[in-house]
Write a structure and sequence with these properties.
Strand content: 5-15%
Distance between the termini: 84 Å
Structural class: alpha/beta
Number of strands: 8
Largest sheet: 6 strands, mixed
Low-confidence stretches: 16-48, 57-99
Radius of gyration: 46 Å
Oligomer: single chain
Helix content: 25-40%
Mean pLDDT: 79
Number of helices: 7
Length: about 325
C-alpha cells in the first residue's frame, strides 16, 4: 500500500509537469516559466511530500525491498543453501556386480600349445611336433568350445588363455599357479577350476582312441587328480586334499559314461600336484591325445559341458 500510493503521487506530479511543458510560452519567457514551475507551488496542484521511514529517513523507491538502490535483496539465497568449503562432498559409488547365483567356472591351460593330429581340414604351423602357438588349432580352441557350451547351459565361465609354456615347458605349472594366485588376489574365486589339456598317445590306447555317437567320432576324455606327494613322498609343502578332489573327478567321469558309453577313461591318479591345492574343486581334464584330431576333440565338448553342468544338481 505504501509503495503504491507513492507511485501514484509520483505519476500525478509527472503528468502535471508534462502538461505545463506542453503549454510553455514561446521564447524568451520559457526559462523563467520552468524555473517557477520547479520552485513554486501552483494553485490547485497537490503537495508532494517525500515518504519517510519510521526513523525519518526518506524511502528509496528504486531500491529492492530491504536493499540499496540497484542491489539485489540481501536474502535471495538462504544461508544453508550456500555451500561452504567443508560442505562439498564427493561420493564414489562402486559398481558391485549383483550376484547372479550362477556357478562360476575357470578354464585355463598350463600347456597352452598342445595340439592334435593335423588334417587337411585343420592344418597348422607346428611350433614343434603336435604343438602350436596358434590358438585356433591348439587346446585353447577346445577350451573356447567348452566355455561356449557351459554358458549355453547357464554357467558363468572365465576362459583364461594366458600362454604358460614359454620360456620353458617344464616350468609351466609355476606360471599357471601364478595366474591362479592373481585371480585370488583380485578377490575372484570359482566353483570349479579346470586345467584343460590333451593327453599323449600310448600303445594302450590303440583301437580305443575314439567312441562313436550319432555317426560322429568323439575323442575320449580323462580326468586326472594329483596327490602332491611327488615320487619321494614329500615333494610339496602344500598338497591337494586329493581325497575330496577325486570325488569330483569320479562324478564327471560317471556322468560322461552315462551319456556315451566309454567316453571317459578311468580317473587317473598321479603323484604330482598339478596346482590342485588351490581348491577341492580343481581338476585336470585331458581331451583326447595327439593321435586324435581337433574335430574329434571339439565334438566331445557338448558332453563334457553337460557333465560339468550336472554337478550343480
Amino acid at each position: 500500500m505504501l509503495y503504491g500510493a507513492a507511485i501514484m503521487l509520483l505519476c500525478m506530479a509527472t503528468g502535471l509537469a508534462i502538461y505545463r511543458w506542453m503549454t510553455l510560452p514561446p521564447e524568451p519567457e520559457q526559462a523563467a516559466f520552468l524555473q517557477q514551475s520547479l520552485t513554486t507551488e501552483q494553485p490547485g496542484a497537490p503537495t508532494v511530500q517525500p515518504m519517510r521511514l519510521d526513523d525519518g529517513r526518506p524511502v528509496n523507491l528504486f531500491a529492492s525491498p530491504d536493499g540499496e538502490a540497484g542491489q539485489p535483496a540481501a536474502a535471495e539465497v538462504e544461508p544453508e543453501e550456500q555451500p561452504l568449503i567443508n560442505d562439498i562432498r564427493i561420493e564414489v559409488i562402486r559398481r558391485t556386480p549383483h550376484p547372479t547365483g550362477k556357478r562360476r567356472v575357470l578354464i585355463y591351460h598350463t600347456h597352452t600349445w598342445e595340439a592334435y593330429e593335423p588334417t587337411d581340414a585343420n592344418p597348422y604351423e607346428a611350433t614343434e611336433k603336435w604343438r602350436t602357438k596358434d590358438d585356433t588349432h591348439n587346446i585353447v580352441c577346445v577350451g573356447d568350445a567348452l566355455a561356449k557350451n557351459l554358458r549355453a547351459l547357464g554357467l558363468e565361465v572365465t576362459h583364461d588363455t594366458t600362454d604358460h609354456e614359454p620360456p620353458v615347458l617344464s616350468t609351466a605349472y609355476t606360471r599357471s599357479l601364478k595366474t591362479l594366485e592373481q585371480y585370488r588376489a583380485r578377490g575372484e574365486t570359482f566353483d570349479y577350476y579346470i586345467d584343460l589339456h590333451r593327453d599323449a598317445y600310448n600303445d594302450s590306447m590303440k583301437n580305443t582312441n575314439t567312441v562313436r555317437m550319432e555317426d560322429i567320432d568323439l575323442a575320449r576324455i580323462s580326468v586326472l587328480i594329483g596327490k602332491g606327494t611327488g615320487s619321494s613322498g614329500s615333494a610339496f609343502e602344500q598338497k591337494p586334499n586329493w581325497q575330496v578332489n577325486i570325488v569330483l573327478a569320479q562324478r564327471i567321469t560317471d556322468a560322461l559314461n552315462r551319456m556315451v558309453e566309454n567316453l571317459a577313461r578311468p580317473v587317473i591318479v598321479k603323484t604330482g600336484r598339478f596346482n590342485q591345492h588351490v581348491s577341492e574343486n580343481a581338476v585336470l581334464i585331458e581331451v583326447g591325445n595327439n593321435k586324435n584330431t581337433l574335430e574329434q576333440a571339439l565334438a566331445a565338448m557338448p558332453y563334457l559341458a553337460r557333465a560339468i553342468a550336472g554337478l550343480t544338481q
